[in-house]
Design goal:
redox-active center; 2 domains; single chain; four-stranded antiparallel sheet; five-stranded mixed sheet; Peroxiredoxin_AhpC-typ; binds benzoic acid; alpha+beta; Glutaredoxin; Antioxidant, Horf6, Chain A, domain 2
């Protein structure tokens, strides 16, 4: 892998690169798939592997919560869609899920390369042919097709679907109310008035805000006003 050029680095704020791909739900053009929705694109190193199996079952079970927030899920694994099809049956059997979102067949790592998901550092993280596995990446993409969050986990560590949902709630609530969210925030907890809002405007928008320091102003924001409402 060392001599191959690396994909253009993606940063928060980059436009999610477009691609055409085969998926378990038919061919897609990624930008058309995004449409006016939020999208979570997440990758798996390989089909029929233990950690990935547990992750996909968990994402499938939480899908209704993502859908309620206008978020579409799409997975990727570096095998064919035929292989994915058999694996999905196992996932549903093991997890009691009904996995209905598409999984990209990325056997040749085309999308993984485009999204810089290949593990170039851990030389032991390779398949039986010595080709680098994808890492466990998560991209949170907004309806403007802007990448808002990137997470990278090693192959050995399963992700936390509740954290992915929490990130969506933070981003959507922040966009709507001009707030940021503190450490370990959960919908219903106090939020932080965005630093760009002066105190005069803050009083108008958040009559109950409290100034702990001039740069740290908390305000209550009931769960009903967040994207986690209902
Ligand atoms: C897993 O999903 O368990 C896994 C996949 C690739 C490498 C190591 C673990």
């Amino acid at each position: 892998m060392g001599s191959e050029p690396r994909a253009e680095p993606l940063r928060l704020g980059s436009i999610a690169p477009n691609f055409d791909a085969e998926t378990t739900k038919g061919p897609i053009n990624f930008h058309e798939f995004i449409g006016d929705n939020w999208v979570i694109l997440f990758s798996h190193p390989e089909d029929y592997t233990p950690v990935c199996t547990t992750e996909l079952g968990a994402f499938a079970k939480l899908e209704p919560e993502f859908a309620r927030r206008g978020v579409k899920l799409i997975g990727l694994s570096a095998n064919t869609i035929e292989s994915h099809g058999g694996w999905i049956k196992d996932i549903d059997e093991i997890s009691g899920s009904n996995l209905s979102f598409p999984i990209i067949g990325d056997k040749d790592r085309k999308v993984a390369f485009l999204y810089d998901m290949l593990d170039h550092q851990d030389t032991t993280n390779v398949d039986s042919k010595g080709i680098a596995f994808t890492i466990r990446s998560v991209f949170v993409i907004d309806p403007k097709k802007t990448i808002r969050t990137i997470l990278s986990y090693p192959a050995s560590t399963g992700r936390n679907t509740a954290e992915v949902l929490r990130i969506v709630d933070s981003l959507q609530t922040g966009d709507k109310h001009k707030v940021t969210t503190p450490i370990n925030w959960l919908p219903g907890d106090d939020v932080i008035v965005h630093p760009s809002i002066n105190n005069e405007k803050a009083k108008e928008l958040f009559p109950d805000f409290k100034m702990v320091k001039p740069y740290l102003r908390f305000t209550p924001l009931p769960k009903e006003k967040t994207s986690a409402a209902n």
